[in-house]
Amino acid sequence: MKNSPTEILSEYWGHKAFRGSQEEIISAVLEGKDVLALLPTGGGKSVCYQIPGLMLEGICIVVSPLVALIRDQVSSLRAKGIKAVALTGGISFEETITLLDNCLYGGYQFLYLSPERLQQELIRERISEMNPSLFAIDEAHCISQWGIDFRPAYLKCSILRELHPNVPFIALTATATARVADDITENLRMSAPLVVRDSFERKNLVYSVIKQENKNQQLIQLCKKDSPSGIVYVRSRRRTEELSRLLADQGIRARAFHGGMTRNEKEYNLKAWKEDKISFMVATSAFGMGIDKADVRKVIHFELPESIESYFQEAGRAGRDGQSADAVLLVNPEDEGRLIKQFISVLPDVAFIKLLYNKLNNYFQIAYGTEENRDFPFNFNDFCEAYGLNPSLTYNGLRLLDQNSVISLTQHFSQKTSVQFTASKIAIFNYLDANPKHRNILQTLLRTYGGVFEFETKINPVLVAKKAGVIEDQVIASLKKAEMDGMLEFHNEQQDMRITFLVPREDDRTINTFSNKIKDLNKVKITNVQAVLDYVKNDTQCRSNQLLSYFGEQASARCGACDVCLKASPVTGKELKALDRDILKMIEGKALSPQILINSLGKDKEIVLKELRYLMEEGKIVLTSNNKYTLTK
Questions:
Q1: 225 exposed, middle or buried (CB, 10 Å; 0-12, 13-18, 19+)?
Q2: Regarding the domain delimited by 205-333+538-553, which CATH topology (the fold level of the hierarchy) does it fall under?
Q3: Domains 5-197 and 569-631 are alike in CATH topology
């Protein structure tokens, strides 16, 4: 063992002392104990396994759910001169062998991989040959079917215990109820684990619920306030595009981020946001995990989340630098009905799961009692249309079949587009002259792909669009028109999933083995949604205290700054006007932090913060990049 934990912390991270329970957790790991660490977002979870990984002989193997999270961690370690490797998707077999050899013989200290990778026989064989010092399971709440973001593959993490029975485990999460925590320790077969739970309280984070009929206008107002960096969370890809355009039209630097974008688009937008070239990212819920940006000042939920756990995790991405930040939940009267419709009305019961499984087998013509154990390309929309099934209900049903190992569902959108010109070259040239609207696209296609007259040729519509200076939809439209006019044959097939059948087809008997689990999970989801609605409707208890209570923690005092606390502060209009004058006088010609203003004005914290917000809304003061207030120029 080399150096001490504090020396390692200082050498690689530049900190002189640990935060919260970090030192206790690290000491337990170094003693060979299993640990479950429940730390708040921004609580420094990665340090709890990275420092032992540097101190112990061997390699620390880290299981993490997202590629973005893995890449960020590995890049950070390499920047510190620490040898780390990542096994992510898209790596060839030969490259995988090379990386695993490096782990065995190259002196690497960290190996990061997804839980799905653990299911590959090659990976398990090589790990069995390694000398692991520690197994770290990050975002460990993914293990529990009762928690958010349940990932069936996480249940296989216990295979590491079989491969190396004496190597300690550390599981880490920022979101876990008592039931989820029990699930984690049980699944990982932890032996008398040390369970450490730091307070989930974020004193610098102000939670607010704003009830507003016109949420678009309220969003614009919130984003127009001086905020160098923020996130707006929505639930659909379409909404990310809509709201990012809405904000941009108002002069607010905003972009969209969602799973349907290309990797280059994501990286381009993310880079702009991290470098503060744009202020707000309008994104779906997965955004933020594994992204190291500590100065997010505002997280706005434009739509109600499906659970308190997911809300708490997403809101917690604000103010990770310890400076004051806001977590705002926008609500209008229709939101409750939308939430119930989206998450409760589409919960599949046992009868629907049996129907879905039957239709799925018929769709792929799988005979009773047979086990295909091979994957099929699956067009989800075509399947739903063929049997008249509700898409949301069907998707949730497929996830249940996947989680219970009846099928393996891989979500991977792909599009196969092919073209073959069937008309003569003279006819094609005449057609181009007669259709100038489509000439540029078809000429670009002919220049790019030489064999389109001789045989069916697979093309890339995105490449053609880029070369022609148009959008992809215009390329598809031109090809469809040319096909209708008899110039070519055009095939545009889409698949958005792949399915593997894992067990022999036995219809109802297959489903009966986990029917009780389906009923229990539906009850949990209903309870989760009701907890969100209760949080929104409760305007008598401090927001922070409500959230802490949900996770079984007793708060010591009101936060004094949320919408509930501010409403409870009785102050006359005359007193507020006097306070406004005092604030403006104090910051005339200089910038002051909110804490200095609170200390100097001799008023309650919540009253001062409320008036600071009011003065900002009135355009009289602004918040600087270093979180200080000054007069508007």
A1: middle
A2: Rossmann fold (3.40.50)
A3: no
Give the N- to C-terminal CA distance of the chain in Å, as an integer.
58
Q: Are strands 298-301 and 325-331 parallel, antiparallel or unpaired?
A: parallel
* Pairwise CA distance, residues 222 & 448, whole Å: 48
The yes/no answer on whether domain 569-631 falls in CATH 1.10.10.10 is yes
Compute CA distances 403 → 108, 155, 329, 359, whole Å: 34, 10, 31, 18
Q: What is the pLDDT of residues 408-420, one digit of tens each?
A: 877 654 556 789 8
Model confidence at 552, pLDDT cuts 50, 70, 90, reads confident
Residue range 578-623, pLDDT digits in tens: 889 999 999 988 889 888 888 777 677 778 888 888 898 888 998 8
Q: How confident is the model at residue 288 (pLDDT cuts 50, 70, 90)?
A: low
Q: How confident is the model at residue 267 (pLDDT cuts 50, 70, 90)?
A: confident
Q: Round the average pLDDT of the chain to a whole number and report it.
A: 87
Q: CA distances (Å), 514 to each of 27, 350, 400, 510, 520, in order?
A: 41, 9, 10, 8, 10
- Return the amino acid letter for 549: S
Class of domain 5-197: alpha beta
**Residue 628 phi/psi, 5° resolution?**
-125, 155
Residue ranges per domain, the chain? 5-197, 205-333+538-553, 341-406+502-528, 414-496, 569-631
Residues with Cβ < 8 Å from 155, sequence gap 6 or more?
143, 187
Per-residue pLDDT tens for 149-202?
677 778 888 899 999 999 999 999 887 778 888 889 999 999 889 999 888 888
Residue for token digits 């101190």?
Answer: 55
Provide the CB-side half-sphere exposure for 399 (13 A, CA). 16
| Residues 461-504 pLDDT 10s | 878 888 888 887 789 889 999 999 999 988 876 655 778 888 88
Strand order across the beta sheet in which 254-257 lies:
205-211, 325-331, 298-301, 230-233, 280-283, 254-257
Neighbours of 197 (CB within 10 A): 17
Rg (CA), the chain: 28
488-526: b or e for each residue (b if 16 or more CB lie within 10 Å)?
bebeeeebebebebeeebeeeebbeebeeebeebbeebe
How far apart are alpha carbons 463 and 480 in whole angstroms? 17
Q: Alpha helices of 388-435 — where are they, by DSSP H?
A: 391-403, 425-434
Q: Which two tokens stand for residue 595?
A: 């804490």
